[in-house]
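RETRY 2/3 - previous attempt timed out on the joint model. Re-submitting the same 666-residue input unchanged.
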Amino acid sequence: MPSSLISVEVKVPDTPVSHAQRKPEPASPRGKSGVNASKEEQSAVRTFLLSRGNSAGADRGFHWLMVLCALSIFGIVGLIAFELVLRSQLSWHQFGFKFFYQAFVDPDTHQPLFWDPVNARFSALPFIYGTLVSSFLALLMAVPLAVGLAIFLTEMCPVWLRSPLAFLTELLAAIPSVIYGLWAVFVLVPLLRTHVNPLLVAGLGWTGMFNGDNPTGLGFLSAGVILAIMILPIISSLTREVMTAVPHSQREAVLALGATRWEMIRMGVLRNARIGIVGSVILGLGRALGETMAVAMVIGATPEIHRSLLANGSSMATVIANEYAEAVGDMHLSALTEIGLALFVMTIVVNALARLLIWMVTKGAPVQAA
Amino acid sequence: MSGDAFKLRSRMRGYTDHAVTALSILATVLVVAPLVAIFAYLVFKGASSLNLAFFTQIPKPVGETGGGMANAILGSALLLGVASAIGIPIGIGGGIFLAEFGRGTRLANAIRFTADVLNGVPSIVMGVAVYALIVQPKISWLPFTGHFSGFSGGVALGIMMIPTVCRTTEEMLLMVPHAVREAALGLGVPNWRSVLSITVKTASPGIITGCMLAFARVAGETAPLIFTALGNQFWSANLNQPIAALPLQIYVYALSPYDDWHRLAWAGSLVLIVLIVLSVSLVRYVTSRGVLKGAS
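RETRY 2/3 succeeded.
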């Protein structure tokens, strides 16, 4: 727009500037100073503009530079996908789709064997299992708490407390994964080992899901708890955002019918915000699936499948973190990359789904991830 | 409905209401408790092990007490420098496109969506991709390829900064009133100049805090560095070689069996968290004060 404005000014065809500049004298002696002065000013502006040149080229260049920056985001996603596919070819050709569900048998112990770098036999099954179990455990614990916190913050909290609490949860989102891991290793795991796990074994041991023969305290449950703490802030802040987006008239209408506060929240707020809440839960799931360091420090790092939640396990992200730098041979590296590719696809699908759901509620207004 | 049943029902409704209030307060307490616990432990354990040596010395060999993480602090600074050099210009450029040129177009929506999705890609996957891109292939005419290097770690972190910087920049630019743009264009300022010196400058406090937020986020990232920057026990400022990083060092020390290393891990965590809390508070302060108060 502005470039065209300027070029119109510059390209005024009559009275070339050089001519106007060369003989300004004959104008002044005639005495019609008013008109001539303005003409002189005009020509000065024109000279100035001409000396600055036309900015259309610069504008176009700038525009395309910005487009390039924006397109690089597509490029990055494409490049990641390309590299992952390229480097996992070896494993894909060797195992095919069976990579995701096959199991081998250890010839000596006759136990199921999934991950055998020595003989270059690999299966992603225990890692997929570990990722899913720890993530769903985390959701089970985090979702009620996060929604409870969001309800408290939007509907009940006194105003003076709202901002500090929101700030605290924001901080919770900013703590690095490795620090959660450090805290989990030295505080959470001993706590679970000495106080919580014996109770679970005693009370729920008969279900087979809590087996007390792991003395370390590491395992799926520890990973689930630390993951729950880590994904709480993102779920609760997005839930809060969605709940705030529900119009006040909805609340007022329900209250006017004589509803209690809870009935107002249930019928006026939660029912209207439910799609967005599901979206934020799925986004939290996406975080949990890819979380690496904290989980790697507490899950136990053994490629096995156990029914007991107190047993050691491993997840997709943690096996990559633990073995990638010291992979034995090309097939091992390729198998790990294929796990990375699976994780990439999983998180992209989950995130895209969550974003769509949240957009549906907030009507396309941008939602900032915490 | 008889009167008694009605009374009972409304009493039950009252109880449910109180129960829900109590439950949500309980939920809030349960959320705040671990946060307070984490901070208390960090300050308690970290402050007692922080000393001058932590900032000036490199790690001592196993068995000797003392030592510090000076090399890791230097390494982190270098990695973050590379990351910012990559992530901030591209991120801001993308944000300018979204807010100034592509507003409402299908391309802009697709880019915005992709940025959000890229934001959710696990950092470990980013590490694998950069490993496959830079560390694994040996290309003789390209520097930094074929081995673990600080540069590859910086690239991984830089890519992770792009979506955050891009989206914050866009949001900040959208807050700049139209009148400011029109005033600039009305003076015959070229568009690129108007965007850079007027719009971006007006929104710059917001954009800077957005960059700091992205910076703080990648400052604590460990997963993408494990097999790119790799870590280093000695002084090294060479981006072409493996380089130490604070989060990486914390990870290694936390899992070690030595008490003295645990102590250093807590101290390192405290340093990291102070950096992050400072930048998050700054972001909070600037945004709550109204980023663009002077503009409108």
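Confidence is low (pLDDT under 50) at residues 1-34, 364-370 of chain A. Closing ticket.
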